[in-house]
Amino acid sequence: MRDDNPLHEGTAHPYLLERAGAPPTMSWKETVLEAFDVFGPASLFVLSFTEAIVQPIPPDLLYIPMLVNAMGDTPLVVWLWLVVTVASVLGSLVGYWIGQHWGTSLMKRFGQEKHLTKLEHLTETYGTLGIFIAAFSPIPYKVLGWMAGMGHMAKRPFLVAGFVGRSLRFGLEALLIGLYGDRALNAIMWVLDNEILLAVLMLVSLAAAWLAWRWWTRLGAQAPDASA
């Protein structure tokens, strides 16, 4: 009997192309994903690992079709979740190392040492929250990894924040697909298609909230003492 349910399609990327309404001609991203898909979870590990360092293809584009094909097999779903999460966190550690060694030397070479102190203060004050937000949201995780390394953020909170954020992100995708199927896939693919716009909006919102909080605290400090 022919199965017409697109959630049960054995191949990942034609499904994604159909969902996105893309033409049959494959872009370089689909070509890379098609090559990666041959090796299963090992491909997912490599894609997630390298994305957290430098390359631009999010692991979700391989992880989500694998989740769709694994639905009903809970141990496999958990295994895929662990693979994509652990690989991403390990990759971010390499990104941290790159930022720590090469980022700092590049800034010094171009006479920007004064910014290193500011960066260190930034990562010490907001680093854990920033890494968590980047790990969970569309904000580029790799960039925060580079910055954490350049600012010499402590590795333990860096790794913990990244693991918690990545675990929640990839775990939520698996949960939503398991509960809502097609509707969840459409929503997740929309987020991935618009992740740059969403990241910009999120950063602007965070900056606006931070400025509002600073204004409010300064207003309180300048207010006259009512008991005087």
Short description:
With 228 residues, the chain is mostly helical. It has 10 helices and no strands. It has one domain (6-217).
What does this structure look like?
The chain has 228 residues and is mainly alpha-helical. It has one domain. Helices cover 77% and strands 0% of the residues. The protein is built from 10 helices and no strands. α6 packs parallel to α8 and α8 packs across α9. The longest helix has 36 residues. The protein is globular and about 55 Å long.
Q: Which blocks of ≥5 consecutive residues have pLDDT under 50?
A: 1-15, 17-24
**Tally of alpha and pi helices:** 10
Give the termini distance in whole angstroms. 84 Å
Rg, nearest Å? 21 Å
Shape, please? globular
Strand content: under 5%
For the biggest sheet, the summary is: none
* Helix-strand makeup class: mainly alpha
Overall structural domain count: 1
List keywords for this structure.
single chain, 228 residues, mainly alpha, 77% helix, globular, disordered N terminus
How are the SSEs ordered, and which strands pair?
Layout lengths: L12 H8 L7 H9 L4 H11 L8 H11 L3 H36 L3 H24 L4 H10 L4 H26 L1 H12 L1 H28 L6
Helix pairs in contact: 3-5, 4-5, 4-8, 5-7, 5-8, 6-7, 6-8, 8-9
